[in-house]
Amino acid sequence: MTQKQSVVIIGGGPAGLTAAWEFVNNGGSDTYDVTVLEETQEFGGISRTVKHNGNRMDIGGHRFFSKDDRIMDWWKDVLPLQGAPSYDDKKLGREHDMEPGGPDPETTDQVMLKRHRVSRIYWNRRFFDYPISLSVNTFKAMGFKLTMVAGFSYLKSMFHKLPETSLENFYINRFGRKLYSMFFEGYTEKLWGRHPSQISADWGAQRVKGLSILGVLKNAFRKLSPKKRKGEVETSLIEEFWYPKLGPGQLWETVERRCVDAGATVITDAKVVEIRQAQGRIESVVYESSDGKRTELHADQFISSMPVKDLVNAIDAASHDDDAEASSAPVPQDMTHIANGLPYRDFVTVGLLVKHMRLKNTTDIPTLGNPPIVPDCWIYVQDPGYKVGRLQIFNNWSPYLVKDVDDTVWIGLEYFCNEGDDFWNMTDAEATKFAISELTRMHVINGPQDVLDSHRERVKKAYPAYFDTYAQMSELIEYLDSFGNLYCVGRNGQHRYNNMDHSMATAIEAVANIKSGKTSKQNVWSVNTDKSYHEQK
User: Does this model's pTM top 0.70?
Assistant: First the structure.
């Protein structure tokens, strides 16, 4: 009988749990001995669902959509698509395609809902479509003079291209200087804490994909064509998506249970503090529980979704440990420098449960609530006069996230900050008071008297950033790949601002390499680097 190959997976987020399931599914536990180490007690990483007093918060908002059919099928296998109307479908008389034989959301939780994305931009106390659309509403909100200025600015950008040496030039080339200054400059600085002129154009190339004024126009014309295919729409314009009934964390909690049932070992409260190596291979990891107890775990293969900075420091820490093998070499100083210089942006979300919103639903999209609430999933606050970056209306993601969905509105205010700064260090009461004051100034609510409950959640290393030593990331990748049995996957594992489906794809590629014996890891790192990769069906 062939001996099992042992695998340690660091992290119980989308990438880590995808890797675990890829190993143990269909009897794979007979071949692979899989252990997942998760630092917290929860699963899903920043894709987890936070539960508070009967209401649920989605950290950052997670649309389940991918142009990679493997991922769509993967999700549908975990949580099948609804085969009957959800609560809000019934209340609003909403019709959309149902999955034949699919579960009824009113009778089971194990179901994926079909959702329609509505997002708008809040700027200068006016609402614009998100992404920017060439609609009558946009022209009305901007006014004739501003529309003309923006139009001529865009025309100029078509004929006078700037070198794409920064994110600022990337945006100006696609939207013109005026629209850039209105909708991108302030928001980008709010998000990253850096002016777009100081940020690499790589970020725009990865997140915005092919979106531009021309992209908006092409998408508008495709909507008029009966031959439009979903795979033809630019990533940032996707309008329909799937969503777990109880939030994204529900899917990853389900995957974790499946992994355990299929033979994987999942250990929580397990923070990896040392990674021991010898002769160019990883030998073992040392994890520490909250009570300070340390445990060493040996394995044949290692998959890491922990932040690259922490990974490199854990390898270096092991080389200085008296218990480590003498053959364990320290991390080269230049690699440590690159890793420690990789920047991150941290995240705070404040949930406010309110009686009602001042904002009126002026769209033709029916919504729940008495009076009806706005239909937005997200409201992007591009206005630099506010610190909040986005508002999430959880009622519109899934009615099952809100305990009393007909008579309350559950709003998430997303703030971008740095761990340890003044906003991060606010108390719950201070952060809640600040959030209430911003919603009041925005005329979203009347004031504190409208707020019934609140919850503040802080998320470290939510956004890997593309400046400082990121320009030398290729050198660090070469070093990490020199360990033949170490695979870096996921958003923080690759220090790449991936969507959830891209993070999953990196894990699928890594597992395929291990199973086939493929030594090159280029396919693992190349997910989401090229605009066409997994973006066209």
Answer: yes
